[in-house]
From TrEMBL:
Gene3D superfamilies: Galactose-binding domain-like, Glycosyl hydrolase domain, family 43. Keywords: Carbohydrate metabolism, Glycosidase, Hydrolase, Polysaccharide degradation, Xylan degradation. One of its GO terms (biological process) is xylan catabolic process. Pfam families: Glyco_hydro_43. Belongs to the glycosyl hydrolase 43 family. The record marks 146 as: Important for catalytic activity, responsible for pKa modulation of the active site Glu and correct orientation of both the proton donor and substrate. It comes from Blautia obeum. GO terms for molecular function: hydrolase activity, hydrolyzing O-glycosyl compounds. The keyword rRNA processing does not apply. InterPro entries: Glyco_hydro_43, Glyco_hydro_beta-prop_sf, Glycosyl_Hydrlase_43_Enz. The keyword Ribonucleoprotein does not apply. This is Xylosidase/arabinosidase.
C-alpha cells in the first residue's frame, strides 16, 4: 500500500548512488549501484550501499546499509582515488544465494561477492575465470568493465561486459577498449565463476561498426545490462553520447541484437523539442541503468548530475511506455515513480527539479567544476554525509530557469517560495518554459531564509511548474509550497 508520494531523486538528496541495477526479490525492489562521494574528485569512491522499497510503495525507500567494502577484495589497489568500485550487478544463483558482480579500477578483472540475503553483508567470493583458472581480463582481452549478469529461464548464466571508447586508445591499466561492442561470457552456474563459452560479441555495434547502421549515433560505450520481457531479450547500454540509455533486442541472449531506440537521456535529449545535447534541459553527463517490470508497468532507472561536475551523481527513475515490444523514450520528471502527478498542496524541496539552466543554457559536465557565473546548480552545504540538511538550488540569477514536472493544480490557489540571498526582482511561474506567467513572486534580499508568495491562476490536473527569475543578484532556492 502506498504510504507517501514518490519524487526524483528517489533516494535522500544526500545520497549519491548512480549506475542503478534494480532487481525484484520477493516483494521488494533492490537497487545496486556505484557510490559517489559528494564533491568527490573521481567517480565511485564510496563502498557499496543498497536501498530497497516495497513493490507497491515506490516512494518508501529504505537504507539497507553498506553491503560490501572495497578492502574486502584481495586485489584492491592501495590507491582508491583512481581505482574505485564501479557499477555492480546482482543475480540469485541456483543455490539461493545472491552474487554481486563488480569491476574495480586497477584490477582488469570482474570480481564476485556473495551473500545469503539480497542486501546483507556480502563476502568476497572470487574472480570470473577461464577453465584454466586465469581470470578474464588477464589474457589481453579488451577492457572488462560495468558487468551485467543475467540468468535465463533455462538456468544458463551470462555475463556482459566491455568499454568501447573510439580509436586505438590504450587505457590507464594498459588495456584496450573493445572495437566490437559488448562482450558476452557464458558462465557455469554451478560455481558462478567459470567461463563455459566466450568471449563473443552480441551484435551491438561499437562506433566504427555503427556507421551506416541503425546504431549510428547511438553506438555502445559501456553500462551493459540484460533484461527479458515476453520472451524477447533487451540489452540496455550507455552510448557514445554518454547522456543516454538505449536498448537493442534479440530472440537470443548471445547474438543478433538489433537497435531499438532511446530509453532516457539525463538532459531529455531526443525527447520532444530537444534535438541535441546543446539544447539539453539540464546539465548532462554519463548515465547507466536498467529496467524493471512491476504489475504490467515498466520503469527505467538512470542517474543525474549535480554540484557542477560529473562525480556527484544521483539515482533517478521514470515510468516508461512499452507497447508491442517497443520502449518509447521516457521524459525526466520530478514525480518519477509516483504513478501520476504530485499533489497540488504541500511543500516540495527545490532539488526535485528536472529542468535547470541559465541564460547560456546547459553543458556536458567534466570532472572539473564548471564556473558558477550565470548558472544555477544543485548542491548541498558541507561535506559528504549520510544524513542531514538537504540539497537546494544555488545561484538563481537573472534568466535562470528551474522546472518541475508534474502536479495536479486543479485546486491550487497560492504558491510560495523559501529562499535566501542578495537578489531583487521577480520570479515568474509558468506551466511551460516560454508560456504566460500564472504567478509573479517578488523577491527581495534576505540573509536568512524567507518566504515570498503569490496567488496562482491555473486549474490543470497535470501541469509543469517553471520558475524563471528576472532581476539583480542571485539567491538560493530552497523549497516551494502549494496551497
Amino acid at each position: 500500500m502506498k504510504t507517501k508520494q514518490a519524487v526524483n531523486p528517489y533516494m535522500p538528496s544526500w545520497e549519491y548512488v548512480p549506475d542503478a541495477e534494480p532487481h525484484v526479490v520477493g516483494d521488494r525492489v533492490y537497487v545496486y549501484g556505484s557510490h559517489d562521494i559528494f564533491n568527490g574528485l573521481n567517480f565511485c569512491l564510496g563502498d557499496y550501499v543498497c536501498w530497497s522499497a516495497p513493490v507497491d510503495d515506490l516512494g518508501n525507500w529504505r537504507y539497507e546499509g553498506c553491503i560490501y567494502k572495497r578492502e574486502q577484495d584481495p586485489a584492491a589497489p592501495r590507491i582508491r582515488l583512481t581505482n574505485g568500485l564501479a557499477a555492480p550487478d546482482m543475480v540469485q544463483g541456483p543455490d539461493g544465494r545472491f552474487y554481486l558482480y563488480y569491476f574495480m579500477g586497477g584490477t582488469k578483472m570482474i570480481s564476485v561477492a556473495v551473500c545469503d540475503e539480497p542486501a546483507g553483508k556480502y563476502e568476497f567470493y572470487g574472480y570470473v575465470k577461464y577453465s584454466d583458472g586465469i581470470a578474464i581480463g588477464k589474457k589481453n582481452e579488451p577492457f572488462q568493465f560495468d558487468p551485467g549478469i543475467f540468468m535465463d529461464d533455462d538456468g544458463k548464466l551470462y555475463l556482459y561486459t566491455g568499454f568501447a571508447l573510439a580509436g586505438n586508445l590504450i587505457l590507464l591499466d594498459g588495456s584496450k577498449p573493445t572495437e566490437h561492442g559488448p562482450m558476452c561470457f557464458e558462465l557455469d552456474p554451478s560455481d558462478m565463476l567459470t567461463v563455459l563459452n566466450g568471449p563473443s560479441y552480441i551484435g551491438v555495434a561499437g562506433e566504427k561498426e555503427s556507421i551506416g547502421t541503425p546504431y549510428e549515433g547511438h553506438s555502445f560505450l559501456e553500462a551493459s545490462s540484460m533484461r527479458k520481457f515476453n520472451g524477447t531479450y533487451y540489452f540496455i547500454y550507455s552510448t557514445m553520447n554518454s547522456h543516454e540509455l538505449c536498448y537493442a533486442t534479440s530472440d537470443s541472449p548471445v547474438k543478433g541484437f538489433q537497435y531499438g531506440g532511446i530509453l532516457v537521456s539525463n538532459g531529455d535529449v531526443g525527447f520532444e523539442g530537444v534535438p541535441d545535447v546543446k539544447h539539453a534541459r539540464c546539465n548532462t553527463g554519463n548515465t547507466h541503468g536498467s529496467i524493471i517490470e512491476l504489475n504490467g508497468k515498466y520503469f527505467v532507472f538512470y542517474h543525474r548530475h549535480s554540484n557542477r561536475k560529473q562525480s556527484s551523481r544521483q539515482a533517478m527513475a521514470e515510468e516508461i511506455r512499452f507497447e508491442d515490444g517497443k520502449f518509447y523514450q521516457a521524459e525526466m520528471t520530478s514525480c518519477g515513480l509516483n504513478g501520476g502527478p504530485l499533489e497540488g498542496k504541500g511543500s516540495y524541496p527545490s532539488y526535485i527539479a528536472c529542468n535547470l539552466y541559465g541564460k547560456k543554457g546547459t553543458r556536458f559536465l567534466s570532472m572539473i567544476k564548471h564556473p558558477k557565473k550565470g548558472c544555477p546548480y544543485l548542491t548541498q552545504d558541507g561535506k559528504d554525509r549520510e544524513s542531514g540538511p538537504d540539497q537546494y538550488i544555488a545561484n538563481m540569477c537573472d534568466g535562470a530557469l528551474v522546472g518541475f514536472k508534474y502536479f495536479d493544480l486543479s485546486e491550487t490557489k497560492e504558491i510560495s517560495v523559501t529562499v535566501k540571498g542578495h537578489a531583487e526582482g521577480t520570479l515568474y511561474v509558468r506551466t511551460s518554459e516560454n508560456g504566460e506567467a500564472i504567478a509573479e513572486i517578488s523577491i527581495s534580499p534576505s540573509k536568512e531564509l524567507r518566504e515570498f508568495s503569490s496567488d496562482i491562476h491555473v486549474s490543470g490536473n497535470k501541469e509543469a511548474l517553471f520558475f524563471v527569475f528576472e532581476g539583480k543578484g542571485s539567491f538560493d532556492f530552497i523549497s516551494f509550497t502549494l496551497k
